[in-house]
Write a structure and sequence with these properties.
The structure holds two protein chains of two kinds. Chain A is α+β, with helices and mostly antiparallel strands. Helices cover 32% and strands 23% of the residues of chain A. In chain B, a hairpin with a 5-residue loop joins strand 1 and strand 2. The chains are: A alpha+beta, B alpha+beta.
Chain lengths: 164, 81
Amino acid sequence: MPRNDDPAIDTDHVNADQFYLVQRLTKPVRAAREGAVGIDKYFRLDYMGSAESEVGRQKESLTRIRAAGNPTIEGQSFTRDGQILEVLVVTAAAFQDAAWTALNDWIVDEMRTKEQHGFGDVLLTGRVPSHHPDLVAWWALGADVMWTIDRDVAENLLAGLEKR
Amino acid sequence: MPTTIEIPDFWVLFDENGVAKGSMYGLSSFSVYPTAESAWKDMAGDTKRERDKRERAGWYVAPVDQDEWAGYYLEGRKHVR
């Protein structure tokens, strides 16, 4: 797993306490618009509380991840009731170690978050909740951690971060 | 006769080049902004002088759907007035 060998890249914010805002990412409602780039090309950001979109938490997180550079996909398996679920984290390489610790800590702490994120249903059943059929990924805005259970979606997260 | 007001998902503040500079929900748990004027007053500056200066420079607010928001606000897509 990649390490943060660059002391100039701050990873202190990549922790479970910063999972209090989790943005839901869904499939786009329609095909990508001509000229669409980045996250906008592959995902629709689901409705969140006003703080996220008005204060600019998504923009801040995206800027930090891109500034740290070299986004990567790292997978880890979670086992619950004998069911194995592979979770794929997408973020800057320098954040990956801390991201996994943060994600684990958040799950152990019963995924306490300001918004309804639906990830608990995924861990329990291996599927997204029925009331969020288009939900494909999650993004902890304060911690700069994106994750999914779908390999194709992980590739799209990576492409979105790289603005491909 | 009843009047229907269509409140957009977002109001986005754009500069004279169509680059997003601010964003707010048209309707949230805490507030409602039914018109561009109400959104402009809240986003374009704390004082009338500041808002007037930006208006003269060509800044404006426009309604934006949820589907369009990330393109303008996160990825820098230019808005055409």
